[in-house]
Design brief:
With 874 residues, this protein is mainly beta. It contains six helices and 56 strands. The strands form twelve sheets. The chain has a six-stranded mixed β-sheet with strand order 12-13-15-21-17-18, with no helix packed on it.
Length: 874
């Protein structure tokens, strides 16, 4: 800068030498540093003519008279020699303002200059600084670096505004290879020149230039791979995807190849491997960061000693290399496919200090969910000498200090394996030479769609017998997420349950079940056992335009002596409903549940529990007990014995019913008669909606239909199909809210023509045309209502009602008269007794006054009745 190089005006600085009592005037502002390869700089800058003495510097530093004129500009130009760069380090920095507001005093740094003669307005500014925070280390891009001090103030200074050190360093470490198109930091690094080295960002460790681009192409020989790692990495972090400054690493010679990784921010332990023999690195910068990021240093290595990925992949479809790793593979299912994995160089000796991770991924989506099944064909992973190379009896006895095969199945262990190989935790760890028939070879089954396997070695195997390492087969099978014994093919949803208790669920529960699914659940007990099924959750798709598109059906399974089965449907449930507890029919010890979904909509599905327990002694208790409080209750009610009407109630009614209730009633009418059932009271948890009946914890079933809730209006009178009516009441075996229960009335009726219901002992209901016993007329219960409102059996009952009312009235009057007479009698007796008591008291007082001769000086004790005086009353 020509104008800046002139000594125009030159600021005058007064330095008071306190100890020697003299004052010197200094005239140095602009300065060029090009004589010495290292030195110091400061503002103000003491002139070369002044002897260098700590006393003088101390005098200036402590002076209270050192002042600067306003509106000054000082330029320090550092010029290094050819093949050199300028390095600046600030030791002190104290200017007015702050990093957010550099208006009064500031320092501008220009580090990308090719010539000392530059234009301030057109040259790239590397950074502007003020306040008390000094710039970080600065290294020039070429051999020129300029700092410009600006000040608009006129204030006294007690210390140096800034000072630091400079040095001229070699730029050889920044020229890492053959330049590309004369770009300042674009090079080709060829393994034929150097197989190992370091690569620095343009001005590392100083702040890197802004709006800059660098390209490094690392090229090895065929058969070689490249390993790079970053001991230090500091690039401005602008967001998760590095939208501003970034280092991008391509797995090939051009930017059209796949990206291994894109880096920014502060990084530690970044280590990458190429797939082939070429690697391209791009370094892009945009605006300068206030934190002065220093860039990066990268170590690289070309070698053919790394794992041969072509051999490890073995040309399998669905098996791919995880980019950036030495030998990590991803095995991905193509829907129920089979794949193989092996250790490097198998069956020959595996390499030392190598860790390979195999990520095994089954399908996971709305329609597909798989699990992985791992089975080892052979394992011979030998530890260091001195350790017996025989297979342990169980996984718990295995210790593998120098070579291992680890299997991670749980999610937490898989995360640990993928995040850090140094702290990996496995569900199973295997090593040594395992025999072919050992259960340690598997199978190992994933808990979800993913599993990880890791092979690691740190020492040369002491056993040279082939094969060495491992080889394993991976089978992907459809995972329905159902516990139970699998039946049929791998993609067939059929399971058997034989335990005394357990649960089953829709596929993939609690996630949505897949479309077009069909699952069968076989629950198998033993003879003289019964099965109870109850649901914890039930949510099937309820489509408006379709009736029962998705459904669950529950069957009783009957088998004859030859084993031939016969399925009898017990219940069917659709969307909008919630099944109540279900018990197998009497004598049935096997049930089948079938779930089916269509191709339109899906929902969460269901989860159900089952209990296999001792069967009840009778289908319906032969003896009816209407006061029963047992969990097994009910009975047979014969109308020919107990009469033409009656009632049944839940256990303990109207007190709360309990959990695990199981009650059965069978009402039997005479031949050619039917049973009419009517609900009088009902408080059963659940509700009956137009969309479906939801009786989760307690349910009443009448001839297969379910009832619950607290509203009576949905329950119309029920007429049996024949002369019997079956009723059951079942509650959840685990928990119930326990409401009052129910009270139902039953009536024996006959459906006949009018002429057959005209005798005196029968009554024909006017509207329902039911024929009932005439004894039911005017008994206080409506016995006619069915299909229509018909209470004619309780109408025209006034005469009987009047007669009854008169009888009650007369009886009440008689009772009142008797009570009145009794009260009068007791009053008379009490009056006569009171009169006798008063008369006796007067006679007693008269006798005592006559026998007292004189007043005694000492009082005598009070006479007791019968002791001194005996009174006789007529």
């Amino acid at each position: 800068m020509a104008a800046g190089r002139k000594q125009r005006g030159l600021c005058a600085v007064q330095v008071a030498r306190l100890r020697h009592h003299f004052c010197a005037t200094l005239y140095v502002c602009d300065h060029v540093f090009d004589k010495s390869s290292e030195g110091t700089f400061s503002l103000p800058l003491l002139p070369p003519s002044l002897p260098k003495s700590p006393t003088i510097e101390e005098a200036f530093n402590q002076s209270t008279n050192a002042t600067f004129p306003s509106n000054i500009q000082c330029i320090y130009t550092f010029v290094a020699g050819p093949g050199q760069r300028v390095k600046l380090e600030f030791d002190e920095f104290s200017l007015a303002g702050s990093s957010e507001n550099c208006q009064i005093e500031y320092v501008d740094i220009y580090s990308e200059l090719k010539s000392p003669d530059f234009n301030v307005l057109s040259s790239a500014l590397a950074g502007r600084y003020c306040g008390s925070i000094a710039p970080q280390i600065r290294i020039s891009l070429y051999n020129i670096l300029v700092i410009v001090f600006h000040s608009r103030s006129h204030t006294q200074k007690r210390r140096f505004l800034f000072r630091g050190r400079y040095s001229f360093i070699s730029d050889a470490k920044y020229r890492v290879g053959r330049p590309i198109d004369s770009q300042p930091c674009s090079f080709i690094v060829d393994s034929s020149t150097k197989e190992r080295g370091e690569l620095y960002s343009p001005t590392y460790p100083g702040s890197y230039p802004q709006n800059f681009f660098c390209s490094y192409l690392l090229r090895g020989r065929k058969g070689q791979r490249i390993h790079v790692q970053f001991p230090d990495f500091d690039v401005f972090f602008g967001g998760e995807h590095c939208p501003y400054d970034s280092v991008t690493i391509f797995d090939g010679p051009a930017s059209s190849y796949p990206i291994i990784k894109k880096l920014c921010g502060l990084q530690q332990k970044v280590e990458l491997y190429s797939f082939g023999h070429e690697l391209l690195i791009h370094f892009n910068t945009t605006r300068p960061a206030k934190t002065d990021p220093r860039g990066f240093v990268m170590e690289y290595k070309f070698t053919s000693d790394f794992v041969n990925l072509i051999d490890l992949l073995d040309g399998q479809e669905g098996v791919t290399h995880i980019r950036g790793t030495e030998c990590d593979l991803r095995v991905k299912s193509n829907r129920e496919t089979t794949h193989y994995i092996k250790s490097p160089n198998y069956p020959n000796a595996y390499p030392v200090n190598t860790t390979c991770t195999y990520v095994i991924d089954g399908l996971q989506g709305e329609q597909h969910l798989e699990k992985a099944i791992l089975k080892f064909e052979s394992i011979a992973v030998i530890n260091s000498e001195g350790i017996e190379s025989t297979a342990p009896s169980s996984p718990d006895d295995i210790t593998c200090p120098s070579a291992w095969v680890g299997v991670a199945i749980t999610e937490s262990n898989m995360k640990a394996v993928m995040s850090s190989t140094d702290e990996s935790v496995f569900d199973y760890t295997l090593c040594e030479r395992i025999p072919a028939n050992s259960p340690l070879l598997g199978p190992y089954i994933s808990e979800g769609p993913r599993m990880t396997v890791q092979f690691g070695s740190t020492n040369v195997p002491s056993d040279n017998l082939s094969p060495l390492g491992f080889k394993a087969q991976i089978d992907f099978k459809t995972d329905f997420g159902i516990d139970g014994e699998e039946l049929g093919h791998s993609n067939e949803c059929m399971f058997r349950f034989t335990g005394s208790a357990g649960f089953f669920n829709s596929p993939r529960y609690p996630a949505n079940y897949p479309l077009d699914a069909n699952c069968t659940y076989l629950i198998v007990g033993q003879p003289k056992q019964e099965i109870l099924i109850y649901f914890e959750q039930f949510a099937l798709a309820n489509e408006e335009n379709k009736k029962c598109a998705d459904w669950v059906k529950i069957y009783d399974v009957y088998r004859d002596s030859s084993g031939k089965e016969d399925l009898v449907l017990q219940h069917q449930y659709c969307g909008g409903s919630f099944p109540g507890p279900v018990v197998s029919s009497f004598g049935v010890h096997e049930m089948r549940v079938i779930f089916n979904s269509d191709s339109d909509e899906a929902a969460n599905g269901f989860k159900a529990f089952y209990l296999i327990r001792k069967s009840r002694a009778e289908d319906v208790p032969s003896k009816f007990d209407d006061k029963s409080s047992s969990t097994r209750c009910g009975g047979v009610i014969d109308a020919s014995i107990v009469g033409v009407t009656g009632s049944i109630t839940s256990p303990n009614f109207p007190v709360k019913y309990a959990k695990n209730e199981q009650c059965y009633w069978l009402i039997k009418a005479r031949e050619n008669h039917k049973i009419l059932l009517r609900a009088n009271e009902m408080e059963i948890e659940g509700e009956m909606k137009p969309s479906g009946i939801q009786c989760q914890n307690a349910v009443i079933r009448v001839n297969g239909e379910e009832y619950c809730g607290t509203e009576l209006h949905p329950i119309l009178p029920i007429l049996s199909n024949n002369n019997t009516l079956r009723i059951s009441f079942i509650t959840n075996p685990e928990k119930v809210n326990g409401l009052q229960g129910f009270n139902f009335t039953w009536t024996e009726v006959k459906v006949v023509e009018e002429q057959h219901c005209s005798t005196e002992d029968l009554y024909l209901c006017t509207y329902s045309k039911l024929c009932i016993s005439s004894t039911l007329r005017c008994n206080g219960d409506v016995n006619c209502g069915y299909g229509v409102v018909d209470d004619t059996d309780e109408q025209h009952c006034e005469r009987k009602e009047n007669s009854t009312d008169m009888t009650v009235l007369i009886a009440g009057m008689v009772c009142a008269l008797m009570f009145t007479a009794l009260v009068l009698f007791f009053c008379f007796v009490f009056k006569k007794k009171l009169e006798r008591k008063k008369k006796s008291k007067r006679h007693s007082e008269s006798a005592r006054r006559q026998r007292e001769p004189y007043r005694q000086q000492k009082p005598l004790h009070r006479a007791h009745a019968g002791e001194y005086v005996k009174l006789n009353f007529p």
